[in-house]
Design a protein that fits this description.
The protein is mostly beta strands. It is built from one helix and 24 strands. The protein has one domain: Neuraminidase (6 Propeller). It has one helix spanning 3-18, and strands at residues 33-40, 46-53, 64-69, 76-80, 84-88, 94-99, 101-106, 113-114, 122-126, 132-137, 147-152, 159-160, 170-174, 180-185, 188-193, 200-201, 209-214, 220-226, 230-236, 243-247, 249-253, 259-266, 269-276, 282-284.
């Protein structure tokens, strides 16, 4: 296994060890840039992602939130700065992301809005009806653990749906019908209803599983395995039929449920790739 790949694995392991690290972890010096947290637009035309560039003088491709088409061209910057964990609004017009707090912005870079004021908020996820945003935060947790909260898209109606004192609840993602939220309770992946009740554990791997994402039809979930290799896995939404797909991390489904975008190290960068689930054909999107 290449040294750079080992360093990428070590970087993920540092995050896994506490789940308190602000994402993304500081990349090792071998990586000049990192493309992270790609997510497919509901209309299938765009992929949003966070790009980190170590070279602060590179103004052509500086650190920020970007969208790119599915052929890997027509790249556009939406927000300059550390815009982590982007997620699309159902109408394709806005993106929610983490910039310490949860923010939304139109894809043309206008109408930036701060949605939360909880101190630190992570992994925002827009409900498929467009009305609510789920995220995790250590706000009001006496032990400093991160738990899942829900807020209306205009910033009102902040609601804690977690049970404190039961460990961390993180990385929420809404089911298409809005009834359930898949998330992690380290080390496993769980699903619960959108009120925080009726939890069901889906993975029992004895390792940290991360970044669960529903398919657009709600039938499947993809996630990243936290074992000695970064692996993307797929399972049915009830946890059955778990199988390995490819090497990588931070996966997200296409709206037609046939293809997954994800990240993987290559040379001195971490770039975006897409893979067809049936044919296993892989295409690199960013360079």
């Amino acid at each position: 296994m290449k040294i750079k790949h080992l360093l990428f694995i070590m970087m993920l392991a540092i995050f896994i060890s506490s789940c308190h690290t602000v994402e993304p972890p500081t990349p090792p010096p071998e990586y000049d840039s990192i493309d992270q947290s790609p997510v497919w637009s509901p209309n299938g035309k765009w992929i949003a992602y966070f790009h980190f560039n170590r070279d602060v003088n590179d103004h052509l491709y500086s650190t920020g939130l970007y969208i790119i088409d599915t052929n890997g061209v027509n790249r556009k910057i939406v927000f300059a700065g550390n815009a982590y964990s982007p997620n699309w609004s159902p109408d394709n017009k806005e993106i929610v992301f983490r910039y310490d707090e949860v923010y939304t912005i139109k894809i043309d870079g206008t109408d930036l809005r701060e949605i939360t004021t909880v101190g630190q908020a992570y992994f925002p996820s827009w409900s498929r009806d467009g009305n609510k945003i789920a995220f995790d935060t250590d706000y009001k947790d006496s032990a400093g653990a991160k738990e899942i909260w829900i807020v209306n898209k205009n910033g009102t109606g902040l609601k804690d749906i977690s049970q404190h004192g039961t460990g961390e609840w993180r990385m929420p993602d809404w089911s298409p019908d809005g009834k359930d939220i898949v998330h992690i309770r380290p080390p496993g992946i769980f699903v619960m209803d959108s009120t925080g009740n009726n939890p069901k554990r889906l993975t029992y791997n004895g390792i940290y599983d991360l970044y669960p994402k529903y398919s657009y039809n709600g039938e499947k979930i993809t996630w990243t395995s936290g074992n000695d290799r970064n692996q993307i896995w797929i399972m049915n939404s009830d946890g059955t039929n778990q199988y390995y797909l490819t090497e990588g991390s931070y996966s997200s489904w296409s709206p037609d449920n046939t293809t997954i975008v994800y990240t993987k190290p290559i040379n001195n960068k971490i770039a975006l790739f897409i893979i067809n689930i049936k044919t296993k054909i892989i295409k690199q999107l960013t360079f």
